[in-house]
Amino acid sequence: MSVTHNVNFRAGQDAKDYTVPGIDVATGHKLAKQIQQQLFDLNELHLTLKHAHWNVEGPNFIGVHEMLDPQIELVRAYADEVAERIVALGVAANGVPGALVKNRDHEDYSLGFASTIDHLAALDEVYTRVIENYRASIAVAGEEPLTEDLLIGQARELEKFQWFMRAHLQR
Question: Which of 36, 50, 62, 135 is most buried (most C-beta within 10 Å)?
Answer without folding.
Answer: 36
